[in-house]
């Protein structure tokens, strides 16, 4: 049976890939709005894709899940900071907030803190 943590891992990973691969034009606009460089955008994007890959790989190798989920949570917390910094509306803040909460759930489930 697939547990909720695995579903959360897939949701986070698929969401990251959709945003960073198929909606990249939105990412370019957002990073310009935040005043961040192209290099920063590239590093963040590559990091998120690697972490998403590790979350999926973690379905078969659970020892790979904790660090990527915590790092993804940190990146989503950073996204929240930048959304607040430029005073984006709540509609733009909700996706990264949702992925932050899912990433924290994955970490907590990996540590057996929750079911």
Quaternary structure state of the chains depicted: single chain
Helical residue percent band = over 70%
Question: Could you list the spans in which at least 5 consecutive residues all have pLDDT below 50?
Answer: none
Query: Whole-number average pLDDT?
Result: 95
N-end to C-end Cα span: 14 Å
SS field, number of helical segments: 5
User: What kind of sheet is the major sheet?
Assistant: none
> What's the number of structural domains?
1
Structural class: mainly alpha
Number of beta strands? 0
Q: Give the SSE order as H and E letters.
A: HHHHH
Shape: globular
Beta-strand percentage range: under 5%
Radius of gyration: 14 Å
Task: Please give a structural write-up.
The protein is mostly helical and about 120 residues long. Helix content is about 80%, strand content about 0%. The chain has helices at about 5-20, 25-35, 40-55, 65-85, 90-110. Helix 1 packs across helix 2 (about 25-35), helix 1 packs antiparallel against helix 3 and helix 1 (about 5-20) packs across helix 5. The model has no long low-confidence stretch (mean pLDDT about 95). It is a multi-pass membrane protein.
Summed up:
The chain is mostly helical and 115 residues long. 79% of the residues lie in helices and 0% in strands.
Topology:
Blueprint (H helix, E strand, L loop, with lengths): L3 H19 L1 H11 L3 H20 L8 H20 L4 H21 L5
């Amino acid at each position: 049976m697939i547990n909720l943590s695995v579903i959360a891992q897939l949701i986070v990973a698929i969401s990251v890939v959709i945003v960073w691969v198929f909606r990249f034009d939105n990412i370019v606009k957002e990073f310009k709005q935040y005043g961040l460089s192209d290099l920063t955008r590239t590093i963040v994007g590559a990091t998120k894709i690697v972490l998403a890959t590790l979350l999926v790989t973690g379905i078969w190798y659970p020892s790979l899940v904790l660090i990527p989920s915590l790092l993804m949570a940190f990146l989503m917390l950073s996204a929240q900071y930048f959304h607040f910094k430029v005073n984006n509306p709540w509609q733009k803040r909700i996706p990264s907030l949702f992925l932050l909460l899912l990433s924290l759930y994955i970490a907590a489930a990996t540590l057996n803190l929750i079911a």
